[in-house]
Amino acid sequence: MPPRFLLRYDTEGTETDLMKGFFEKVVEVHRAHEIPATFFCCGKAIDARENDFRWFHGEVAGDALFDIQDHSYSHIGLCYERGPSVVALRADYEQSFAAHQRVFGVRPRGISICGTSGRDGPGLPGFDATEKSRRELDMIAALGVRMINTRLAGRDGTREFSGYAGLGHPDIMGFPSAFSDTDWMYQRNHGDPIAYVTSLIEERARAGNHMPLMLHDWCAWKCSLDKELSHVVRFAEVARKNGYRLATHLACLNDEPLWR
After folding, report:
1. Residue 231's domain spans which residues?
2. Residue 140 and residue 150: Cα distance in Å, rounded?
3. Which stretches within the chain are classed as H helix?
4. Contacts of 81 (CB under 8 A, 6+ apart)
5. Average pLDDT over the chain, rounded to whole?
6. What is the CB neighbour count within 10 angstroms for residue 64?
7. What is the DSSP string of 55-74?
8. How far apart are the first and last CA of the chain?
9. In whole angstroms, what is the distance from residue 135 CA to residue 139 CA?
10. pLDDT in tens, 13-44
11. Residue 239 has what DSSP assignment?
12. In 3-state terms, the chain is what percent helix, strand and coil (to 5)?
């Protein structure tokens, strides 16, 4: 089974003027180069730029290259040491899911964990770490979530798919997540971002590891060298050349031998 290249956009931008043209370019580039991607959308961004999100969904509905999932309403911290109460978390996710339902006509099946920059303390090692975090897992399962980050199953969150059967939820998939462009593109912590990510793809391909790549809509649009998403095209080309199967998160969920 070939390793997967998982490209995602945490879609958070709320400023209509600054994000103008992003979705149009995404559709153009990803279709032209047949690059699958998952868009983990914040409900607050959906509400702030509803016309943009409606256009995007109308354009890509039914196209397997584009997978739309959730990233909470307000970028809230799930499974953190000092995170919000389960009641507050549930309300935030319910508000975000309602935005998905209103604008896209469907509830999301997957969520990606939001980073909270230390305000909620360190992230817990897994949903089984505390009694509260176990209730958090039960809460998101009750919302119909079927996929979330692997690391909350207590596994290597950068390399592995997993199931959550050991925590009582056999129908939930864990997906690998790592390598945010806020690190290598926005902050430029590793020198040339294209060379850095390309070397990561090649290194992980040699080891037979899955390769997650986390982009953000605002960073991909405002911090890259151009507005042609040329870095995305380059990474996809290198991944294919090195034997990766490019896939959305939803496609991986449906490929059950990958994670069960």
Report:
1. 4-258
2. 15
3. 22-32, 43-48, 50-60, 86-104, 131-142, 181, 193-207, 217-222, 230-241, 249-254
4. 120, 121, 122, 123, 124
5. 97
6. 11
7. HHHHHHTT-TTEEEEE--SS
8. 14
9. 6
10. 999 999 999 999 999 999 999 999 999 999 99
11. H
12. 45, 15, 40
Can you give the CATH number for the domain in which 207 is found? 3.20.20.370
| Averaged pLDDT, 98-106 | 98
The residue with tokens 């864990």 is: 174
* CA–CA dist 173, 55 (Å, integer): 29
The percentage of the chain sitting over the pLDDT mark of 70, rounded to a whole number, equals: 100
* Res 176: pLDDT: 98
- Please say whether the beta carbons of 126 and 161 come within 8 A: no
pTM for the predicted model, two decimal places:
0.98
Count of alpha carbons within 13 angstroms of residue 85, beta-carbon side: 3
Using alpha carbons only, give the angle 108, 50, 119 rounded to the nearest 5 degrees.
65
Lookup: tokens for 120: 């909620």
Question: CB–CB of 212/221 below 8 Å?
Answer: no
The C-alpha atoms of residue 99 and residue 95 are separated, in whole angstroms, by 6
- What pLDDT, in 10s, does the model give residues 204-228? 999 999 999 999 999 999 998 899 9
Could you give the number of structural domains in the chain?
A: 1
Indicate the length of the chain as a whole number. 260
Check residue 93 and give its pLDDT. Answer: 98
183-207 average pLDDT score: 98
pLDDT value at 130 more than 90: yes
Answer yes or no: are the C-beta atoms of 177 and 112 closer than 8 Å: yes
C-beta separation of 130 from 83 below 8 A: no
